[in-house]
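--- STAGE predict ---
source: upstream dedup step, 1 unique chain passed
mode: sequence only
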Amino acid sequence: MSQVCGGIFTSHVPGIGNAIARGLQQEPYWKPFFDGFNPVHQWLAREQPDVAVVFYNDHGLNFFLDKMPTFAIGAASEYRHEDEGWGIAFQRPFIGHPALSWHIIEEVVESEFDPVTCQSMVVDHAVAVPYELCWPGTDPFPVRLVPIAINTVQHPLPSPKRCLAFGRAVGRALKSWKGGEKIVVFGTGGLSHQLEGRRAGFINKDYDHFCLDNIGPNPEALLGHSSLDIVELAGSQGVEILNWIAARGALTGDVVELASNYHVPISNTAAATVLFENRELVPA
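--- STAGE serialize ---
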């Protein structure tokens, strides 16, 4: 049987990718954020997961405003990162896990969700940056990828409640997978930020800390706000917290926080990283 060993929740700001490419990790502006990955590296070295299931939002590489699925699951044998206009495209390929992808797709459809299935797919900074942060300089990447994209761009957006339920359906699929791999779940994006309009540069530390305090022990607390409420509270891009909520739903065991880091700002974004261990529930 498979084991979901834990979850890594982190910002995916494209500027982080440029900082990595330029070797700026120890610069004062960047160092507090990159230092937050030291415990993540130690945990990954200890656990050595085989598969990463990544909840993220596509930024126009696969889907645009004219065709925007609420949920999409990759089922390809390989994925590649492409330059979205930031001047950088990481070259290391991402090896897929089609068998696990199809198992997840079948299980979430059985749970009455209707994802778009993608047998050909590219990935953007929302996947590539977290990978580069977690496995710097590792070639090839030591995990196979199952990408799961959530619409955080084109309204109407899925509700936090719907995203948590979707994540729990994925979690049930992972628990029933008989492949025997060790799996790590990612939630990427956020936290509060807005990149356009009159509120460009908006950051809400209070809401960010509310999310950080509750995403582990009490994710239901985040369901009290609608998606539009979150846009108001966290900015138009801060609604990427939906990815975190779905990823948290996929952790179906006893979730224990091992490390947390919050740094403001990174490229007009409240950047955060949280590491959770997902321990088997002990029957009462």
